[in-house]
Amino acid sequence: MWLKFDGLTEKEANELLKKAIDAKTEVAPNSRGTFAKGSRRELPNKINEALALQRPKKTDD
C-alpha cells in the first residue's frame, strides 16, 4: 500500500500521521510500516532513507 498527501499544514500532517500509525496498530498489529514526512524538496531523500532502513544489509560472503 502506498499513500501520498500534500497541501497539509504541519499540524494536519502530524495528526494524520498519528492517526495512520494508530490505525495500523489496531488493524494490523503484526505488520510493519514506514513513513517519510517532509517538504516537497526533502521528501525524495527521506523516502529513500526510510526504505533503505528496511533493506537487509548485503554481506560479502
Secondary structure elements and their pairing?
Elements (H helix, E strand, L loop, with lengths): L9 H18 L15 H12 L7
Summarize the structure.
The protein is mainly α and 61 residues long. It contains two helices and no strands.
Q: Quick check: average pLDDT? A: 85
Please tell me what the overall shape is: flat
Number of strands: 0
Q: What is the count of distinct domains?
A: 1
Order of helices and strands: HH
The radius of gyration computed from the alpha-carbon positions, rounded to a whole number of angstroms, is 14 Å
Task: Jot down its keywords.
2 helices; mainly alpha
Task: Describe what this molecule looks like in 3D.
By secondary structure, the chain is an all-alpha fold. The protein has one domain (10-54). 49% of the residues lie in helices and 0% in strands. The protein has two helices and no strands. The protein has helices spanning 10-27, 43-54. The longest helix is centred in the first third of the chain and has 18 residues, at 10-27. The radius of gyration is 14 Å and the shape is flat.
